[in-house]
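Deadline looming. Please check this record:
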Amino acid sequence: MTLAGFLGAAWLFLDSRAPAAPPAPAPSPSVVAYNSDGLSDTYDGFHVEALSLPGGRGPGTVSLQVTGPTADFQIVHTKPMHMYVLRDDLSGYQHLHPTLADGAWTAPVTITDGGAYRVYIEFTPVGRPTTADPTVLGVPFVIPGDTSMIPVPAPSADASSGEYTVRRLDGTRDLTSGTQTALQFQVLRDGEPAVLEPYLGAFAHLSNFEVRTQALMHLHPLPSSSTGQLAFHAAFAERGDKRMFLQFVAGGELHEVAFTVFTT
């Protein structure tokens, strides 16, 4: 046997006794993660499809169909579903309450200007603890034509609606993301604490939107008296600007104010 043949036979002998290399792991299937913040039309097995969306300025209709594991939603804050509309410059906020008929959730809406909008829906399926987070889905729509965009206002400690002033008790202090944070407000009338009336099962509602993404988180105040002081606890996942819309009833009327808050 030649030297080359001998070496070749030796290599085959050694190779036949070497442990086989482990097979390469199969590539992981692509996984799409959805957040329950209104930026997706699908979450946790539920899907929302637009049947009718506004196509121009003025009065219109939002009509949506929701499919998923159940069609039964709990009554949360006196409604089975809450709906919100917002333009991508964080203006034009509306809090609506659709009604269900023939499988469609429908609400009237009035759009005053053009631009890119999103409609959000929030609901809690039957069987889920009422203390758990609701499911929040959303779909976009566009109103064509010339549009007057509105810059997001700078942080301010006060905001007014009619005779009422809402004061953020920590002024314009930055909040810290990633930890439980307390937001406290005082509603005043003529410099004195205002008497608040229940609105949708609470003394106030606070809708928080991330300015960068428009992700929604809806908050309710901790139990308190009706003497105008409101406290909300939340954990903000991202740093950056938030635009918050606070709604309350006083003097028999619904009032709305907005605050810009920054989290570090």
